[in-house]
Amino acid sequence: MSDPTILYCVGATKAGTSWLHDALKGHADCALRDVKEAHYWDTVNGADRLAYLETLEKQLHKLRLSRHRANLGNRGWEAANVDRQIAALTEQIDMLCADRQGNAAYLDWLTRERVDEAVVADFSPSYALLEGPALERMVRVSPKTRVIYLMRDPLARLWSHVRMAARRKVGEGDALEGRANYILRRVLNGESHTQISLRSDYAAAVDRLTAVVPESRLSLMFTEEMFAPGGFEQVCGFLGIRKAAADTQKPVHAGVKVQMEPGLREMAMSFLKDQYDWARATFGPLPQAWQNNLERVSA
Asked: Quick one: CA dihedral 152, 154, 155, 157, positive or negative?
């Protein structure tokens, strides 16, 4: 049995990576883990690893409480589902804690559920922020690595990322809209949430990727094109697997819709103007959703 292709989908955050993971997980030629983001290559540093492991341990604690409540309520189906999540999270923690010599534990984790499928994958959008040497180590782990970077309309991506950050703070109640607009204003003023700003910078991410990843092994794709007819088939072709259809209407981790304050839209478009200009200069005509936002602000 030949070694599989290792796919890294490195973002952008809130640009359709969860949908693509779900679609490929259902493809007969792919063996993807339930855990979407391994966070292996961005936790090489001991301090980064410890911080992320603490986050996973908190998740594990919450899952164990959920299982306990399910068992007390005689909801066996729910307890069984939580058990699967606990097992998957425990395997990820064990992989991250293991000796990293030769990346053996990571490769075993990636391929553990594979029989003879052609593709395994790690969908960690944070990898797009890695610098050259780290990206080189990641790409060199196998001669059959492939990298996908998705670019969604910058304003839509930014607002989705902000809403996700707000939802983590206040949930889905009435306070969500106010919190989201508050976070967006601070991002645009450079006052907080630097990760949101960093992940808005497609140009810098593409510069880092193209400097390291061979052109034949790198796909730079507009999210809007992935969801268009033939888009998923294009992904399949890049991976060398059988072309198949996918449900582009299926929501996967869809954000809660709230209204952006009108004044912030103009500020956000000014903040993102360099990204629109770069994309047009680099790739030519932009998807219609990108053009619509540009026209709406300039009208």
From this structure: positive
According to DSSP, the residues that pair with 53 across neighbouring strands are none
> DSSP for 27-80?
STTB---S------TT--SHHHHHHHHHHHHHHHHHHHHHHHHHHHTT-HHHHH
pLDDT tens column, 102-133: 999 999 999 999 999 999 999 999 999 999 99
Q: Which residues contact 112 (CB under 8 A, 6 or more apart)?
A: 33, 91
Count CB neighbours of 145 within 10 A. Answer: 18
Cα distance between residue 79 and residue 77, in whole Å: 6
- Mean pLDDT, the chain, as a whole number? 94
Largest CA distance in the chain: 59
- The residue whose two tokens read 């919190």 is 179
Whether the Cβ atoms of residue 135 and residue 208 lie closer than 8 Å to each other: yes
Residues ≥6 apart with Cβ < 8 Å to 97: 53
Q: Given CA atoms 249, 14, 171, 36 in this order, what sign does their dihedral have?
A: positive
Question: pLDDT tier at 251 (50, 70, 90 boundaries)?
Answer: confident
Amino acid letter, residue 226: M
DSSP, res 114: -
Q: Is 285 exposed, middle or buried (0-12, 13-18, 19+ CB in 10 A)?
A: exposed
Token match 């001669």: residue?
143
Q: Phi, psi at residue 58, to the nearest 5°?
A: -65, -40
Which residue's entry shows tokens 């979407």? 36
